[in-house]
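# step 3/5: fold
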Amino acid sequence: MTREGASLFIAPSLINRGWNEHTKHLMEPTPKTSRAKDFLHPQKKRTCLMKISVITINYNNNLGLKKTIESVKEQTAPNIEYIVIDGGSTDGSFETIQSNQEAIHYFTSEKDRGIYHAMNKGIAASSGDYIIFLNSGDNFLTPKSLQELSSPSLEKDIIYGNILINKVNKSKITKYPQHLSFIDIYTRSLPHPATLIKRSLFETVGLYDESKKIVSDWTFFIIAIFKKNASYEYRDVLVTSFDGHGVSADPKNKQLINNEKAETLYEHFPRIANDITDLLRLKKMEKTIKRNPLLYVLLRNYF
């Protein structure tokens, strides 16, 4: 089978779900305000165990992809659907995907319009009750990671745990609060490789905004929780080892991240946008003051 002939693989169980129609739609420009329910597959009522769709996005990261696939194959959680969306890699990723077809329910290897377009394609191809994104280079920490995150039951719209962030010669466990404030989400997003999202929530909120380059997953969470009143639950389990060298961690992208967050804030939360901006400025000043012990003591005594 040649690369051209195998760029799109569909498991037999997906053929009857009209995937070709949805693929065609996703290859068209996605309006910023598009509603996901207009083209997501309708969900059937299930009496069996909840199905979890694990979605991996990859582009020319074959070594990372191998690690990610192996960690998914090791999971003990029942009823997992595994989906791999590759952006037309030329580094051997395609061959790695082909050699693991027994563990992959659906994959595609073709050019896309960016990571959020690829993530939206993964959502459209999925049939699980819940979705979790584990992109190439990330891996579940143990074979029981997904089972622990999803136990004892799945009910809330969003269920999130903790991650281990890996950088050069440095690893750090990042924990998240049980109760989320607007500032909690604004200053740092929930960790998508340690977060289960109810698939139907994408019908309520919409798919990822492809006009944003870096913070569309953050935008989804802040709109879901604070505008659409999505339910959520924190589970104090360490789920994923996360590659901390992505675009969001690059200092060169800091201004773009701030600009995209500000766009979301003023578009979706205009009544509190100025207050949030002022509060963030004050918090930044507070951090600066605390770095200077003498100044901190003087100002604390003054006020």
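# step 4/5: annotate
Confidence is low (pLDDT under 50) at residues 1-7, 10-25, 27-35, 41-47.
# step 5/5: archive (pending)
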